[in-house]
Structure formats: structure tokens, C-alpha cells
Amino acid sequence: MIPENSSLTPSQDATRNTILEASRDLFARFGYKKTTMEDIANALRKGKSSLYYYFKNKEEIFMAVVQMESDMLYSKLQEVVNSSKDADDKLREYVVVRMNTIASLENYQRVLKEDLYGGYEFLGSIKKDAEDKEEIFLEQVLSEGVASDIFHVKNVRVGAVGISTALRGLEIPLFKKGGEADFNTQLENILNILFYGVLKR
Fold first, then answer.
1. DSSP-derived secondary structure for 94-160
2. pLDDT in tens, 108-123
3. Residue 179 burial (CB < 10 Å; 0-12/13-18/19+)?
4. Separation between Cα atoms, residue 15 and residue 11, nearest integer Å
5. What is d(CA 35, CA 21) in angstroms, rounded to the nearest whole number?
């Protein structure tokens, strides 16, 4: 296996990415527990020993796959946060992009669902990093909204943590199989509650 502090050549990096893409597909189709190193090797038409040159075990491959999908998600959210839109439009787009992107990332979404029952403790650092990024993003959007007199938030830090926590709590019910129409309806409900609360106006 390549030492962690060793840099990969372009060819090795391409091979590593090929392993991750094949693994990503297998994990999405069969789940982490049912996918084996042999399955991954067979999908690549390689021997298992070639996988161990890049990864210690299946757990490390899965960590890299989830990290890859997490990076995809937060790269898209970074684009939203850095856009020139007004803060209210930015926050609305943030929620829509966030939920729609997670819906397309099968392994990331699977971890969200299955981690309620344990078994993914080894992903703790990835999840903590994602939570920290989200809170920073939301704090930035809320701060912009307060500065432009669009939002009334007394403590943007607490507000960011609250919205981030609420969004994570809504992921499981939102991603239950109910079809695209139901997903969009529930997403609109989330946005309405986030912006207008539950009081009748």
C-alpha cells in the first residue's frame, strides 16, 4: 500500500480514482456491508492485491467514496454561498441545492439513513467536518442577510447551528421513497417553514 505521506504520480492518481468510481457504484447498488473487496476487484478486472496498493481495506475505500461525495456536495454549496444573489434567494437556493444534491449522492444518502442504527462510526471525522462547513456557510448567508436588513437574526451563529440541525433532521423523512413530486412538495414545505414559520399570517 502507498504510504499516506507519499504523493501519487498522475498515473497512480488516475488508477486510484478508477477504483473509487467502481467502488462508488457497487456501494450504491449493494451497500457497504454486502460489497466485498473481491467484488471491487472483479468490477475492475484486477486482482485484489492491486487494491491493497492504494487502500488498506474496504472501510478505507468507503471512507474515500463518502469523502468524495461530501466534497461534491459542499463544492456546490460553496458556489451558492459565493454567488451575488440577495441573502434570502441565496438561503432558498442553498436548501434546494443541498437536498437535491444529497438525493443524487446515493452513498452519502445511505449513510445518513443507516447511521441512525450505528455501524459507520469510522466516518465520524467526515461528518464532523461536513457539519462545521455547513454552519460556516449558513452563518455567512445569515450575516449577509442581517447586514442588508433582509433577515432579523439576533445571533447568526446560533441561527446557523439551528438551521443546520433542522436540515439534518429533515433529511430522513424527505428521502423516503415517495416519488419526485412528493420530494418537491416536501422541499417546498421545508422552505416555507424556514422562511415564514408556522404562524398563520
1. HHHHHHHHHHH-HHHHHHHHHGGGS--GGGHHHHHHHHHHHHHHHHHHHHHHHHTTS---S-HHHHH
2. 888 877 765 567 888 8
3. exposed
4. 6
5. 14
* Termini Cα distance of the chain: 62
Please give the full DSSP string across 39-99, using - where no structure is assigned: HHHHHHT--HHHHHTT-SSHHHHHHHHHHHHHHHHHHHHHHHHTSSS-HHHHHHHHHHHHH
Closest by CA to 160, choosing from 185, 135, 177, 179, is 135
Continuous segment of H or E residues that includes residue 182: helix 179-196
Radius of gyration (C-alpha) of the chain in whole angstroms? 20
Q: Which of 101, 105, 103, 98 is nearest to 81 (CA)?
A: 98
Q: Which has more pLDDT, 147 or 124?
A: 147
Surface-to-core class of residue 85, CB atoms within 10 Å of its CB (0-12 exposed, 13-18 middle, 19+ buried): middle
Residues 6+ apart with CB under 8 A from 150: 86, 87, 88
Check if the beta carbon of residue 107 is closer than 8 Å to that of residue 23.
no
29: nearest Cα among 76, 68, 56, 65: 65
Question: Nearest-5° angle of CA 135, CA 108, CA 187?
Answer: 65
Q: Give the rounded percent of residues in the chain with a pLDDT score beyond 90.
A: 64
